[in-house]
Structure to design on (483 residues):
């Protein structure tokens, strides 16, 4: 068996692992990158990029179908060629993943090992049956995989996860989506708009990442106007019948029905890939899911020589978070000294549904837990239903709720369902990270007519509730018509 002595061993060559590799290499040349699966990040292969390709196709169809209110009549309904749609998704997906593969292939050969690594102890790893690695520091960046209840296997090969969907050669006729979270909402709505019969089922009433009850209730109502959405479904049974997945469930009218679908898409979450790493051979403290407990500022597991980053950390499964965590973990591992806190940015998340969902900074639930019933934070809001630019574009569905601290006026966060949420979320996240007050935000420029004027309306409402400004004026002259 080959023996390698190294300063840093990194398990996983995804977004977090690559970030850790680059950061560690800034301090030492003795860095080993270990990967068991294909190169190419989760985002590029089965996540954010291929899903956006499918969504882009769905948006084109929807724009054509929604042209009539503008006085534009489409005489022939658009025809969706499923094979062509999926061909572009696969080709562009492979192109994005190829960029990552090319990057890894440029790394020195002596820095890369293929195989499955397991801990022998805190400092020793065995890769398959061919290599023993002695490492001063280790970074776990093994990513995650789709997770779903065992009874979903009742539908046998009719069960798919999003990893499978992007390899389709054609679009099916029908799909039952379980899980109205980020993946389920994005893919469910996109497939619906591409002509697939879709029903989305959830448990417990949650929708995406939303925690604000007002935004969540509004979002559910608006999305349910377009496609079947039951966030608290009562599914009595599921099984495979012929080449279909058959569901017996109580529908939204309270009736018991039986329906068959070509596929059951499980979008019920992901679990960290930490369960087959031999962590029982280390002295790490694990949570109830078998994930090492780590400091979110240093990514160090306790006081050990082991760090963790990305989806494996069970913190925030988002590419930018994985990249930041990987950089912090790799920097601390590479320096071989006492771990120091790295830059952690303001939380920001976006669901690319239509309208989009976005969350920034502290969530409503977090603020309720922190402040309890003392009314120490205030909420401002705006509806986009009559907002000028939104109405011009017939994108006038949406609600933004913004939060700030009583007394100081410090802007704390926001939850939103509406047009241009991906862009508004960035502006608001910068405000949180810069510790701006609501008054300071209102001093910033707002052009007319733009969707961002809705942000100003929400902030004015919030400022009044903080007792730091006047009551909001409806249709104020300075704002321009329809602001």
């Amino acid at each position: 068996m080959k023996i390698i002595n190294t300063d840093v061993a990194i398990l996983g060559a995804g977004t977090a692992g690559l970030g850790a590799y680059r950061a560690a290499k800034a301090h030492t040349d003795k860095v080993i990158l270990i990967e068991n699966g294909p190169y190419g990040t989760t985002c590029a292969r089965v996540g954010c990029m291929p899903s956006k390709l499918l969504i882009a196709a769905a948006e084109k169809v929807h724009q054509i179908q929604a042209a009539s209110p503008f006085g534009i009549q489409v005489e022939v309904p658009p025809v969706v060629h499923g094979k062509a749609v999926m061909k572009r998704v696969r080709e562009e997906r492979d192109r994005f993943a190829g960029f990552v593969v090319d990057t890894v292939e440029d790394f020195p050969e002596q820095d890369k090992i293929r195989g499955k690594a397991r801990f022998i102890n805190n400092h020793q790893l065995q890769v398959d049956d061919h290599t023993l690695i002695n490492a001063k520091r280790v970074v776990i960046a093994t990513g995650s995989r789709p997770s779903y209840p065992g009874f979903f296997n009742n539908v046998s090969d009719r069960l798919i996860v999003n990893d499978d969907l992007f390899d389709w050669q054609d679009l099916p006729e029908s799909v039952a989506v379980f899980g109205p979270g980020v993946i389920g909402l994005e893919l469910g709505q996109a497939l619906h708009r591409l002509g697939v019969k879709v029903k989305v089922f959830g448990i417990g009433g949650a929708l995406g990442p939303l925690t604000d009850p007002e935004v969540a209730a509004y979002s559910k109502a608006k999305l349910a106007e377009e496609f079947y959405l039951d966030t608290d479904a009562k599914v009595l049974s599921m099984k495979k019948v012929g080449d279909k997945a058959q569901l017996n469930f109580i529908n939204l009218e309270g009736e018991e029905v039986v329906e068959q679908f070509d596929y059951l898409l499980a979008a019920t979450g992901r679990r960290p890939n930490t369960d087959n790493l031999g962590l029982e051979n280390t002295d790490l403290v694990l949570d109830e899911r078998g994930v090492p407990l780590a400091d979110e500022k240093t990514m160090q597991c306790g006081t050990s020589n082991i760090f963790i980053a990305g989806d494996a950390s069970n913190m925030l499964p988002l590419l930018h978070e994985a990249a930041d965590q990987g950089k912090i973990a790799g920097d601390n591992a590479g320096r071989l000294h006492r771990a120091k806190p790295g830059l952690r940015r303001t939380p920001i998340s976006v669901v690319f549904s239509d309208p989009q969902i976005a969350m920034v900074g502290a969530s409503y639930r977090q603020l309720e837990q922190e402040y309890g019933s003392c009314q120490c934070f205030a909420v401002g809001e705006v509806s986009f239903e009559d907002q000028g630019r939104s109405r011009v574009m017939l994108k006038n569905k949406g609600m933004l709720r913004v939060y700030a601290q009583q007394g100081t006026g410090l802007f704390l966060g926001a939850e939103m369902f509406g047009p241009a949420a991906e862009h508004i979320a960035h502006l608001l996240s910068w405000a949180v990270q810069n510790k701006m007050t609501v008054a300071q935000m209102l001093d910033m420029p707002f052009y007319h007519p733009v969707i961002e004027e809705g942000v100003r309306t929400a902030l004015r409402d919030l400022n009044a509730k903080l007792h730091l400004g006047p009551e909001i004026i409806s249709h104020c002259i300075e704002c321009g018509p329809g602001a």
